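Predicting holo structure, thiamine diphosphate bound.
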Amino acid sequence: MTVMEQRGTYRPAPPPAWQPRTDPAPLLPDAEPYRVLGTEAAAKADPELLRRLYAELVKGRRYNAQATALTKQGRLAVYPSSTGQEACEVAAALALEERDWLFPSYRDTLAVVARGVDPVEALTLLRGDWHTGYDPYEHRVAPLSTPLATQLPHAVGLAHAARLKGDDVVALAMVGDGGTSEGD
Ligand SMILES: Cc1ncc(C[n+]2csc(CCOP(=O)(O)OP(=O)(O)O)c2C)c(N)n1
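Done. Tokens:
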């Protein structure tokens, strides 16, 4: 029993009874795909930026196909592909400033490459090597994390240190939906 409970000042509300979910799963995306082209927002966007984003998507899809082929040839131990989610990889990485940090998981090679890491070096860990292949400090990209969710406390640690030091830095960590079940 805590001190506050002994004093009788701490009376937490009982937990709500479990009820079956009745809302239409608000976390799921709409049936209608999210469209940018042809909208008012797209008309205002910088055409150069749109071209660059699209180029990154095309390169990303090609990269995924090539890296997957390398696994079939036995030249890469494993490649968790991000085909179908290139946009979230590329856009998140490009939203960062140079001073910010990226903490990727094994599936986020495209984000690592979009951040400026050499595309071949970015595959070093997935080739089974003992080192990252790139200098994390040069690009402010942590190693691609294979143990699920372990990149999260690293990102939080960096963000907390930045806050204590007064540094204006973002720590962006990427994690799969399954990874969110980890204690980290
Ligand atoms: C700590 C830990 N436990 C188990 C695994 C084995 N494992 C690798 S990928 C994976 C599924 C992860 O799913 P999710 O987080 O949704 O990411 P996705 O691979 O679907 O992008 C599991 C269980 C692991 N890598 N690390």
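Residues 25 and 31 are 12 Å apart (CA to CA).
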